[in-house]
Amino acid sequence: METTPRPAKLVLIVEDDEAVCDFLCTLVEREGHKTRQAHDGRKGLALVGQERFDAIITDLMMPDMGGFEFLRELQAGESSHVPVIIVTAKRLDRVAEEQLRAEPNVVEFLTKPIQQARLMCALQRAFQRGS
After folding, report:
1. What DSSP string runs through 17-29?
2. Please, what is the average pLDDT of the chain?
3. Cβ neighbours of residue 62 under 8 Å, at least 6 residues apart?
4. pLDDT, tens digit, for every residue of 74-131?
5. Which tens digit of pLDDT belongs to each residue from 56-86?
6. Which pLDDT score, from 0 to 100, does residue 125 have?
7. Backbone angles phi, psi at 95, to 5 degrees
8. CA 92 – CA 96 distance, rounded (Å)
9. Which of 3, 60, 77, 84 could form a disulfide with 67 if both were Cys (CB 3.0 to 4.6 A apart)?
10. For 8, which DSSP code?
């Protein structure tokens, strides 16, 4: 029995740490998906304006435009429906984390170091939500 390959999804990774960004890209691409990279929120928004992404993985603490501002701008624009996975080393208090999780397009909030299995599960949920 032949199975048809699932179509590749396009994932934007917004992360200022180049090593972490490359690691996230590798994980996503191993699953057969395509990635684009941005090293701050401003560059991420520029890419969102150019391409249609199936999911976004973003850090919170970045130079120029951080993740909080990036999320706010994303939600105000035409891409407010794109599912977002937040990955961060920043420890937030319970209330702040719950507020981020309550955002309509936030699928998951993961702390670094990233656990591959949790990220892949979150990405699958993001793709299902975005369908």
Report:
1. -HHHHHHHHHHHH
2. 89
3. 14, 15, 16, 39, 40, 41, 70
4. 988 888 899 999 998 877 778 777 877 778 899 998 988 999 999 999 999 999 987 6
5. 999 998 988 888 899 989 988 888 899 999 9
6. 93
7. -65, -45
8. 6
9. 60
10. P
What's the average model confidence in pLDDT over 21-44? Answer: 95
Describe the chain by its helix, strand, coil percentages, rounded to 5: 45, 20, 35
Q: Which structure tokens are listed for 125?
A: 């949920």
- Give yes or no for a contact between 100 and 78, defined as CB atoms under 8 angstroms apart: no
Query: Exposed/middle/buried for 31, CB within 10 Å: 0-12, 13-18, 19+?
Result: middle
Domain residue spans in the chain? 10-130
Q: Treating both helix axes as pointing N-terminal to C-terminal, what angle do 116-130 and 18-30 enclose, rounded to 10 degrees? A: 70
CATH topology of domain 10-130: Rossmann fold (3.40.50)
- Give the global pTM: 0.90
Q: What is the CA radius of gyration of the chain?
A: 14
Cβ-contact 9, 28 below 8 angstroms: no
Indicate the SS3 state at residue 50: helix
- Please say whether the beta carbons of 67 and 14 come within 8 A: yes
